[in-house]
């Protein structure tokens, strides 16, 4: 018996996955985050962002620390999405990545929308088997990097959704 079901290639799967995540972002995140909501701290030790004359800096979580980190602010999560996409696009284009301590975010979902459009172009046109020198010890195929970045976006969006619910019901 042969399998006659349609097969989805990796490019279609990655683009469809991103489309689902972005649909959620458009419905519940983009245009719905006020400056007050972005700055709201769910607890006193929450990591957040700080405005400077040149952009937004972020507190950085020590990922090697064994203690459970405090929940971040929505502003920090938006900064994190911007940092991930900016750095990944830089690596895809053979440019250097920014250290989190040096990265200045825009403080705007408009920049995230611009980065999403650039990421759409990468997913539509680039060779998904191309090795990318990224955050892993060895280069990874762009398709694997794309899966990771899509996952990071989904994770950050779900955290923003949870924080919006907590804020609304505090």
TrEMBL record:
InterPro entries per the record? DinB-like
What positions does the domain DinB-like occupy? 30-160
Question: This chain belongs to which protein, by name?
Answer: DinB family protein
């Amino acid at each position: 018996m042969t399998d006659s079901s349609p097969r989805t290639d990796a490019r279609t799967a990655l683009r469809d996955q991103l489309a689902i995540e972005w649909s959620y972002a458009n419905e519940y995140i983009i245009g719905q985050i006020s400056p007050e909501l972005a700055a709201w701290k769910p607890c006193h030790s929450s990591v957040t962002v700080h405005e400077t004359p040149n952009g937004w800096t972020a507190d950085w979580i020590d990922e090697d620390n064994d203690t459970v980190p405090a929940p971040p602010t929505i502003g920090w999560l938006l900064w994190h999405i911007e940092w991930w996409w900016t750095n990944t696009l830089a690596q895809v284009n053979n440019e250097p990545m920014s250290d989190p301590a040096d990265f200045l975010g825009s403080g705007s979902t408009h920049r995230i929308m611009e980065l999403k459009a650039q990421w759409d172009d990468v997913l539509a046109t680039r060779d998904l088997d191309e090795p990318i020198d990224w955050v892993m010890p060895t280069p990874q195929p762009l398709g694997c990097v794309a899966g990771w970045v899509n996952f990071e976006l989904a994770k950050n969006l779900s955290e923003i959704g949870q924080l919006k619910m907590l804020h609304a019901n505090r």
